[in-house]
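Field log, afternoon session.

UNIT: design team B
ACTIVITY: writing a sequence onto a fixed backbone
BACKBONE:
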């Protein structure tokens, strides 16, 4: 008889199940901590596939004011125009918000609002909420909330990854681990080009995350500011329908892990790779000299790169997030069509038309049917005659 050492066993709580589905349910955030906007709540109740999550760190730490606010509002409008429903996720006053109003977006966008907004990943969430602060959710933080409320697709600019010299510093973004935990598809322009992209892709493979490109014939993985990173993804998706089918099957398999869809920046906004490598290298040296560490590194580098490129990188950043939002919304509409039938798609086409015109020129139909019931008594019999007036 084979004897195994006692150290190989551990006591599990009563009722504990090790299945992927059970683990996911154990991770659910208490609904009492989350405020969901009425539009988002209604869509999640009837057609959850149509909701597209949006992060808020790009507002609070990724762009200067007012470019951050303008971009956030435009991105939400783009999602609506494609027939989907945007849900920007953030923490406001210690409460998780899924879907923000214009006033809340403005509060997060303004750095002079008086309330410090913290960059919020999984590790920061309990502190930010317990102290009643505002938080811009990172990719990891947004994934955590999106999964908890049932959102299946998420658009962002670029995800975090393994930092350069990560083999020495062990600086690996929590975004990668959360992607391995949440069955949510992330549409981004790849990994931020200030990071070690080859090692990031290797780490994602270890986490069980399927990485694909979108609309790339040779599976060339994008590098945020540039269309090519020199690394390749395993697969390429050619259309929203193909992407939606993959999301559907991923759910049916119950894998419990996410999908990263790399969408190249539109060509007219793409930057020269050689120029960007030189700029990033200079920014990294500056960060090391000023001893910038931890979660402050990425915002510092992005700001430095914007200054060194005289604003070109900021224009590229704004263009790629808008394009990613459009792609994510198209995939969401196709996913609803696949899982709910053609009726859902036709309904969203009508909503997209209204969103594109902001309601202007939409027809207003007034009408009704009136039914009068007249009762005539003849001798001992009661006879009913029904007159219908249109």
């Amino acid at each position: 008889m084979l004897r195994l050492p006692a150290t190989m066993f551990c006591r599990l709580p009563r009722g504990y199940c090790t299945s992927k589905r059970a683990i996911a349910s154990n991770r659910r955030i208490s609904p009492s901590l989350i405020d969901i906007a009425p539009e988002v709540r209604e869509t999640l109740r009837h057609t959850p596939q149509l909701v597209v999550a949006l992060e808020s760190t790009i507002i609070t730490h990724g762009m200067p004011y007012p470019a951050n606010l303008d971009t956030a509002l435009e991105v939400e409008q783009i999602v609506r125009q494609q027939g989907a429903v945007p849900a920007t996720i953030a923490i406001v006053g210690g409460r998780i918000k899924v879907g923000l109003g214009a006033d809340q977006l403005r509060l997060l966008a303004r750095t002079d609002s008086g309330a410090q907004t913290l960059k919020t990943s999984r590790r920061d969430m309990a502190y930010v909420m317990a102290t009643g602060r505002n938080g811009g959710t990172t990719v990891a933080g947004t994934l955590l909330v999106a999964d908890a409320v049932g959102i299946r697709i998420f658009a962002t600019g670029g995800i975090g990854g393994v930092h350069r010299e990560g083999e020495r510093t062990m600086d690996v973004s929590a975004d990668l681990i959360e992607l391995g935990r949440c069955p949510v598809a992330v549409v981004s322009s790849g990994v931020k080009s200030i990071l070690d992209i080859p090692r990031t892709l290797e780490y994602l493979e270890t986490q069980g995350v399927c990485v694909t490109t979108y609309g790339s014939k040779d599976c060339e993985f994008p590098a945020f500011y540039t269309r090519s990173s020199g690394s390749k993804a395993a697969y390429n998706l050619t259309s929203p329908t193909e992407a939606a089918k993959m999301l559907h099957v991923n759910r049916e398999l119950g894998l419990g892990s996410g999908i990263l869809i790399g969408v190249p920046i539109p060509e007219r906004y793409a930057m020269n790779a050689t120029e960007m490598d030189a700029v990033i290298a200079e920014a990294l040296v500056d960060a090391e000299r000023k001893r910038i560490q931890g979660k402050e590194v990425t915002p510092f580098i992005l700001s430095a790169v914007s200054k060194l490129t005289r604003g070109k990188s900021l224009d590229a950043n704004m263009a790629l997030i808008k394009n990613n939002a459009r792609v994510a919304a198209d995939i969401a509409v196709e996913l609803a069509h696949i899982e709910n039938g053609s009726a859902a798609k036709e309904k969203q086409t009508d909503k997209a038309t209204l969103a594109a015109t902001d309601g202007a020129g939409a027809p207003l139909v007034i009408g009704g049917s009136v039914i009068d019931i007249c009762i005539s008594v003849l001798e001992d019999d009661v006879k009913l005659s029904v007159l219908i007036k249109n």
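LOG NOTE: The radius of gyration is 25 Å.
NEXT ACTIVITY: expression trials, pending approval
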